[in-house]
Design brief:
Immunoglobulin-like, 24 strands, about 350 residues, about 40% strand, 2 domains, alpha+beta, 5-stranded mixed β-sheet
Length: about 350
């Protein structure tokens, strides 16, 4: 059973939100979708009864307010209540305080035999207001300048749906709602190999980190200082770090003599994102994380990536439920949902193989 509440946050406090639609979701390796829905009572309270199964399903609760879906963390036991079952929702704004880039982490891969090399970035975006920042058709919720010669730009994981990330006039633009707190965005792109790529800091960054795989690569500017090398999934990287970077700063990454890629950029990129998370937490930028405690034998600890995918599926479903879809839009929605479900299946299977 899960018993919790829906609360509407303001600048200094929260209050119960009555008559809110609350949905229990189940996302498993075999199937995914809403299980049940109720309305919150006069005190904002809701209750669901559910029974965990043996197929590694992830259960969580959501509520939509102002057109934006908000979620609990995955339910981690047969009886969930209190903070773990609380859904906090926010008013929305397309104005007000901007969404800031609090930290930025780059992984510059060795070029191998290609004429271009891949750069992967992890951005930590912070909304310091008490309202969810939403976009308009002409004003994204957040945007950032890409290098002039960037090509093949892809949103690649993180907490923002790839279909909400666009490339416009040399900038990455996010059209997803960004609720108060810190959110992660991951992108990757290609730049010409053996050329110096200049990148603007673009924001007041508390942390700027560059990991360069090629031992001959040069990294300079923005007060970046060399640190001890790091090894991620068997691959060695030079590491450069700066703090309290000015928004007007510019830094550069120069290509070296090339190297080999024993692993894909995608696989090492996810590992680098985890490394970056550790650095951010050490420097005091915290966000909501799962604390599973003692769990029921049929509900195992959920990897963070599985939680992100499950929320992405539910948010996609919530967006599509409110729209009349053309055949083309429905086909695109189905393809995206199947891709997310397939990735979730793989993540849960890997988790179960380790248990």
């Amino acid at each position: 059973m899960v018993r919790g509440s829906v609360r509407l946050a303001s600048q200094d406090t929260t209050r119960p939100l009555p008559n809110a639609t609350v949905v229990l979701h189940r996302v498993g390796r075999a199937a995914a979708g809403p299980v049940d829905s109720v309305r919150s009572d006069a005190n904002g309270m809701y209750t669901f009864r559910y029974r965990a199964t043996q197929d590694s399903a992830v259960y969580f609760v959501s509520s939509t307010y102002g057109g934006v879906a908000y979620f609990t963390s995955p339910l981690t036991g047969p009886d969930v209540h209190g903070d773990s079952a609380e859904v906090v929702v926010f008013d929305t704004t397309s104005a007000g305080p901007r969404v800031d880039t609090r930290s930025r982490h780059l992984v510059v891969f060795a070029r191998g035999t290609a004429k271009r090399q891949t750069i992967a970035e992890v951005y930590w975006l912070e909304n310091t207001s008490a309202k969810t920042h939403v976009s308009t058709p002409s004003h994204p919720a957040w945007s950032f300048q890409l290098p002039d010669d960037a090509q093949n730009v892809h949103a690649d994981g993180g907490e923002i749906a790839p279909d909400a990330v666009k490339v416009e006039r040399g900038r990455v633009a996010v059209y997803a709602p960004i609720s108060p707190g810190v959110r992660q965005l991951q992108i990757r792109y290609d730049v010409p190999a053996q050329r110096t790529t200049k990148l603007p800091a673009g924001d007041s960054l508390s942390v700027l980190e560059v990991l360069a795989e090629d031992p001959g690569a040069t990294v300079s500017g923005a007060r970046l200082a060399a640190q001890a090398p790091v090894v991620i999934q068997g691959r060695s990287f030079q590491r450069f770090l700066a703090q309290n970077v000015s928004p007007n700063a510019v830094f550069s990454v120069g290509g070296g003599g090339g190297g080999t890629r024993s692993l894909s950029a995608r696989s090492i990129y996810i590992g680098a994102g985890v490394a970056a998370l550790g650095i951010v937490l050490l420097l005091g930028f915290t966000r909501l994380t799962l604390n599973p405690g003692r769990v029921n034998v049929t509900i195992k600890e959920t990897p963070r990536r599985a939680e992100e995918i499950a929320h992405a599926i539910a948010a996609l479903d919530a967006r599509m439920e409110r729209r009349t879809l053309s055949d083309h839009e429905r086909a695109a929605y189905t393809a995206q949902r199947e891709a997310l479900t397939s990735e979730l299946t793989n993540v849960l299977a890997e988790r179960d193989d380790r248990l």
